[in-house]
Amino acid sequence: MSRESLQARAIAARAQREAAHRRRHARTVARREGVRCSVDGREVVNFCSNDYLGLSQHPQVIAALRDAAGEGAGATASHLVCGHGEQHAALERELADWLQAPRALLFGSGYMANLAVLQALLGDGDLCVQDKLNHASLIDAARLGGCVFKRYPHADAEGAARQLATQAGGAALLSSDGVFSMDGDVAPLGELARVARAQQAALYIDDAHGVGVLGEAGRGSVDHAGLASDAVPLRLVTFGKALGGAGAAVIGDADLIGHLAETARPYIYTTALPPAQVAATREAVRIARTGDGLRERLNANIERLKAGAQARGLALMPSDTPIQPLLVGSDAQALAMAAALEDQGCWVAPIRPPTVPEGSARLRITLSAAHETAQVEGLLDALARARDRVMA
Ligand SMILES: *Cc1c(COP(=O)(O)O)cnc(C)c1O
């Protein structure tokens, strides 16, 4: 017998990643205070978090977490056993009310929620059609789900229609990010809704980066596109981005959500979110709903960054959202740019394949309502210097 060693394989794969500038490691963050923190011992301004409204450290959110912690640290069981408490029930009602949908169902994370939707709703022979740049969790969900999986070119609703038309039988789900997580652009939701209707497919929008940021009262990309919520029978909301916490919910049609609640394995076979975490999210929802002032500050920062980049000849990717990537191209240059920024006290994440397509490594700059004007200006100057140093 000549079985392969898993260790030998892991070591060889690591050497390959090393040679290709594709090693990844977690940075240790300390002394987080607003957008300032210390990373591996150096003081920086953070331009890579998804805390778009600064809610992760909002005093009322933290107070809600503390107050509810008296109920205990954990939910003690899955929802269908005894883990579904008053906090969970209230958050589901409040999300449905805010986002104008019939029903909401909580999940441990957005990743699990996407697995749940595709696994519970689609079976062998059903069709799932997705944007090529959808989040990895949607792609993985389709791969694991046993459905027929087809992808269309980025933001190409006609391409989606063509893929849907390839198969007449069975059910079909058309799924797209609302705001693309590594690009920052918004999906053509009106056109996708028309295509879904014409092709009798259900539309599922992953709005991880839209909720709290876009639309009336922060209702997200679907509202921003002027769509009635019944044009989109299913939406994903995550709590770890603009809401500053952790967890997720799928909201939408009551029959579909009811089906998930009784059959989706990533809902049934996992412990419910800690009640205090849910209480914090309820408070974050209250603040986000009425957070026009925060959104104004965020949008002013976005406009400032875009105008300043243009003035300095820095070609940001086209985006009106807090995700403002700067395309670099090579992995090595993306790493060098990020290091040059960090030397100047600006923390920006370099994003490389396989998270983004080959040859499109980039700096994923993210903005928050909590950034001050001077910090955004400081980033612009640092970007120009890093470019001159690295790209010359
Ligand atoms: C972050 C993200 C997810 C996963 O959400 P988690 O709650 O962090 O697991 C899903 N979809 C998109 C588009 C995301 O950006």
From TrEMBL:
<feature type="binding site">
    <location>
        <position position="355"/>
    </location>
    <ligand>
        <name>substrate</name>
    </ligand>
</feature>
<comment type="pathway">
    <text>Cofactor biosynthesis; biotin biosynthesis.</text>
</comment>
<dbReference type="InterPro" id="IPR004723">
    <property type="entry name" value="AONS_Archaea/Proteobacteria"/>
</dbReference>
<feature type="binding site">
    <location>
        <position position="238"/>
    </location>
    <ligand>
        <name>pyridoxal 5'-phosphate</name>
    </ligand>
</feature>
<keyword id="KW-0093">Biotin biosynthesis</keyword>
<feature type="binding site">
    <location>
        <begin position="110"/>
        <end position="111"/>
    </location>
    <ligand>
        <name>pyridoxal 5'-phosphate</name>
    </ligand>
</feature>
<keyword id="KW-0663">Pyridoxal phosphate</keyword>
<dbReference type="InterPro" id="IPR004839">
    <property type="entry name" value="Aminotransferase_I/II_large"/>
</dbReference>
<protein>
    <recommendedName>
        <fullName>8-amino-7-oxononanoate synthase</fullName>
        <ecNumber>2.3.1.47</ecNumber>
    </recommendedName>
</protein>
<dbReference type="InterPro" id="IPR015422">
    <property type="entry name" value="PyrdxlP-dep_Trfase_small"/>
</dbReference>
<feature type="binding site">
    <location>
        <position position="181"/>
    </location>
    <ligand>
        <name>pyridoxal 5'-phosphate</name>
    </ligand>
</feature>
<dbReference type="InterPro" id="IPR001917">
    <property type="entry name" value="Aminotrans_II_pyridoxalP_BS"/>
</dbReference>
<feature type="binding site">
    <location>
        <position position="135"/>
    </location>
    <ligand>
        <name>substrate</name>
    </ligand>
</feature>
<feature type="binding site">
    <location>
        <position position="209"/>
    </location>
    <ligand>
        <name>pyridoxal 5'-phosphate</name>
    </ligand>
</feature>
<comment type="function">
    <text>Catalyzes the decarboxylative condensation of pimeloyl-[acyl-carrier protein] and L-alanine to produce 8-amino-7-oxononanoate (AON), [acyl-carrier protein], and carbon dioxide.</text>
</comment>
<feature type="modified residue" description="N6-(pyridoxal phosphate)lysine">
    <location>
        <position position="241"/>
    </location>
</feature>
<feature type="domain" description="Aminotransferase class I/classII large">
    <location>
        <begin position="43"/>
        <end position="383"/>
    </location>
</feature>
<dbReference type="GO" id="GO:0008710">
    <property type="term" value="F:8-amino-7-oxononanoate synthase activity"/>
</dbReference>
<dbReference type="InterPro" id="IPR022834">
    <property type="entry name" value="AONS_Proteobacteria"/>
</dbReference>
<dbReference type="InterPro" id="IPR050087">
    <property type="entry name" value="AON_synthase_class-II"/>
</dbReference>
<keyword id="KW-0808">Transferase</keyword>
<dbReference type="GO" id="GO:0030170">
    <property type="term" value="F:pyridoxal phosphate binding"/>
</dbReference>
<dbReference type="InterPro" id="IPR015424">
    <property type="entry name" value="PyrdxlP-dep_Trfase"/>
</dbReference>
<keyword id="KW-0012">Acyltransferase</keyword>
<comment type="similarity">
    <text>Belongs to the class-II pyridoxal-phosphate-dependent aminotransferase family. BioF subfamily.</text>
</comment>
<feature type="binding site">
    <location>
        <position position="24"/>
    </location>
    <ligand>
        <name>substrate</name>
    </ligand>
</feature>
<dbReference type="Pfam" id="PF00155">
    <property type="entry name" value="Aminotran_1_2"/>
</dbReference>
<dbReference type="InterPro" id="IPR015421">
    <property type="entry name" value="PyrdxlP-dep_Trfase_major"/>
</dbReference>
<dbReference type="GO" id="GO:0009102">
    <property type="term" value="P:biotin biosynthetic process"/>
</dbReference>
<comment type="subunit">
    <text>Homodimer.</text>
</comment>
